[in-house]
Design goal:
The protein is mainly alpha-helical and 94 residues long. It contains 4 helices and no strands. It is elongated and about 85 Å long.
Length: 94
């Protein structure tokens, strides 16, 4: 006749408890990374390229606005023409 089978499970429970306590004592050092200036520049260039690719070349809202203004015959006067010419030449660097 075998007595004391329950004692085996009690020993196992104590062993598991000791394993848990010892694993709780982990040395916690702070991890860190450093990113080079070149990598930061490349990330910024990637982001700017992505934004540029997603931005349409023609702003349809501005085109529609100008078309509406041009329908008015009083809109085109010397001041508007000079302003447009100045902006155009400035864009060309002249």
């Amino acid at each position: 006749m075998i007595n004391g089978v329950n004692n085996v499970t009690q020993v196992t429970n104590v062993q598991n408890l000791r394993k848990t306590e010892s694993s709780a004592k982990v040395n916690r050092e702070v991890d860190s990374i450093s990113v080079s200036a070149e990598a930061k520049e490349m990330a910024e260039a990637y982001y700017l390229e992505k934004v540029a690719n997603e931005t349409p070349d023609v702003r349809a809202d501005r085109v529609a606005e100008v078309k509406e203004k041009l329908k008015d015959p009083n809109y085109l006067n010397d001041v508007v023409i000079k302003s447009a010419a100045d902006k155009f030449l400035s864009a060309l660097g002249i």
